[in-house]
C-alpha cells in the first residue's frame, strides 16, 4: 500500500512538472545563441545606418528639390523626373552602353574565375599552387587609380610600352585610350586582370568539398580528367555558380563608376557614358539632385527585377535560388 501511495505521489509531481510553462522555442534559441547574435550587432548596425536609413532619400526622385527651400518644402512633382529621363535622347545611349558592358562582363569575366579555379584544382604541388594563388590575388588590392595609371603608361601612343611594341612590329600605333572600339575591351581586360584571381576563392572553397571517392570511382570506370571535371566537378559546384550568377545579376547595371570615369575622355565618351557616370555628372557637377536620384532609382529597380527574375528561373529549372 505504501508503494502504491509513493508511486501516485511521484506521478502527481510529474504531472505538475509537465504543467509548468517552459520557455518559448524562440526565447530558448535567443538565450542559447546570445553571444553569436551579439557578434551580428555591428553588421546589423552598419546595414541599418548606411543602407536602410538613407533610403528615405529616394523621395528626392519625386520632388523638385531646391537646397535653399529644403527637402520637405520642395515641390512634389510625382513621376515628372522619370518622364523627363525616358524622353531624353541620352536614355537609349545609357541603356545601350550599360547593357553592352554588363553583357561583356557576364560572358567573359564571370566564367573566368570558374575556369581558373578548375585549373588550380588540378595542380598537385601544394607549394606551387599557393604561390600562384598569391600572385593572382595581389591585383585585387591595387587601387583603380593605380590601375588606370598603369594602363595609361602601357597603352599611351606617346611612349607606351605596348604601343611601342606594336609600332616595332607593324609600323603604326593604336589609340587604345581614345578609341571607341577599344574602350569596352579595355574595361573587361582590366576587370579580368584585377578581379579574376580574387573570384576564385569561393569556387576553390566549393571544390574542396567535392567527394574524392567520386573521382576514384570515375578513374576505375576509365574516365579521363576532362570527363571527371565535366561529370563530377562542375555538377558539384553548380549550386555555387548559380547563386553567384543571381547575385551578379543584381549588379548587372553597376559598371564600376570609378573605373569608367577614369578611363573615359572626350573622344570615347559616346560609348563610355553609363548610368553611374551620368548620375555623377548631373547630381554632383550640375546640381540636378532630383533628376539624378530618379536615374539612380530606375537603375536600382531594374537590378531588383533582374535578381527576382534570375532567382525565379533558377528555381523553375530545378536549382535552389538565394531565397
TrEMBL record:
This is ABC transporter permease subunit. It holds the Pfam family BPD_transp_1. The chain crosses the membrane at residues 35-53, 99-119, 131-155, 229-247, 288-314. Belongs to the binding-protein-dependent transport system permease family. Its main location: membrane. InterPro entries: MetI-like, MetI-like_sf. The keyword Membrane applies. Keywords: Membrane, Transmembrane, Transmembrane helix, Transport. The lineage of its organism: Bacteria, Bacillati, Bacillota, Bacilli, Bacillales. Gene3D superfamilies: MetI-like. Residues 95-310 form the ABC transmembrane type-1 domain. It is a multi-pass membrane protein. It is found in: Cell membrane; Membrane.
